[in-house]
Design brief:
This protein is an alpha/beta fold and 300 residues long. It is 34% helix and 28% strand. The protein folds into two domains: 215 residues, P-loop containing nucleotide triphosphate hydrolases (Rossmann fold), CATH 3.40.50; 61 residues, no CATH class.
Length: 300
């Protein structure tokens, strides 16, 4: 299957400052791809090259098999974009905003009510956008990005700062679009959000890619698991942490080694809590943010 987004060794510099340093990746149809990094890491510059706002100074980009270098009308007709900055027309209603952008895309019979219902704004479609909350505007931005039924969707911080209900609605829409075959690339500095949504993620820092893989594989390869136990000894409360990975834990070996690992953990747990009362006990695994910091030496 041909990649919906194919990026090969693209570069971009602002004067002497190299913002993007020869990065390559691809996104398949129906895949949600999280592009993760702190502010200033190169995310926005990369997206601007992908959507044609900036021509790459080196390397190549293909969207739906078509080359992209600056403005590409045939590509733009098949993509949807939602930026973090809300560039909506404040004095127009939600319905008027969507009809206006439908005309720009040449969409003759847009399903305005269907889109507004999807983002839970149908009851407010006649109201001016100036009266909308931040979450409502963000949901309208998503609806606008879907006006042309895109095959590729670029979302910049789609749930940043939203209330839980608005964030959940946007996550649902992203999953629905991916299930319909749309390639979704979302940029974010929120690792938990990316973990919930993404099939694969890319870590970018200082313009370079450090890893491209599924969240699960990154955790298995680079993270460590532990058992956290809170106990009470007399009047004092302690938190104990026992490693689940490493020597003596059985790993993914044969049945005998797994059983040996369980026994070893049981012995260590028994020794650790002896003479104490167990309050809570749960397993933990490394987060994407833990792994990002370990790889780049930089927090988010």
């Amino acid at each position: 299957m041909e990649a919906a987004i194919q990026v090969d060794a693209i570069e971009y510099a602002y004067g002497a400052k190299k913002a993007v340093r020869g990065i390559s990746f691809q996104v398949a149809p129906g895949e949600v791809f999280g592009f993760l990094g702190p502010n200033g890491a190169g995310k926005s510059t990369t997206i601007k090259m992908l959507i044609g706002q900036l021509p790459p100074q080196a390397g190549s980009i293909r969207i739906l098999g078509m080359p992209v270098r600056g403005h590409s009308p045939e590509v733009h007709a098949r993509m949807g974009v939602s930026f973090e900055e809300k560039n909506l027309y404040q004095q127009m209603s939600a319905e008027e905003n969507l009809r206006f952008f439908a005309r720009l895309f040449g969409v003759k019979k847009p399903d305005i009510d269907g889109l507004l219902e999807k983002v839970d704004l149908l009851a407010r479609k006649k109201d001016r956008v100036a009266s909308y909350s931040k979450g409502m505007r963000q949901r309208l931005m998503i609806a606008r990005a879907l006006i042309n039924d895109p095959e590729v969707l670029f979302l910049d911080e789609p749930t940043d700062g939203l209330d839980p209900v608005s964030a959940q609605a946007i996550r649902r829409i992203i999953r629905e679009r991916a299930q319909a075959g749309c390639a979704v690339l979302l940029t974010t500095h929120d690792m938990n959000e990316a973990d919930k949504l993404s099939d694969r993620v890319a870590f970018i820092n200082d313009g370079a890619l450090y890893a491209v893989d599924s969240p699960e594989n990154l955790k298995l390869k680079h993270g460590s698991r532990s058992l956290t136990v809170r106990v009470r000894r007399g009047e004092a409360t302690e938190e104990l942490r026992l490693a689940l990975d490493g020597e003596g834990q059985g790993g993914q070996g044969d049945e005998a080694s797994v059983e040996g690992g369980r026994a070893a953990l049981g012995d260590r747990l028994k020794a650790a809590v002896e003479g104490a009362r167990i309050l809570t006990m749960h397993t933990e695994e490394a987060s994407l943010e833990d792994i990002f910091i370990a790889m780049t030496g930089r927090g988010l």
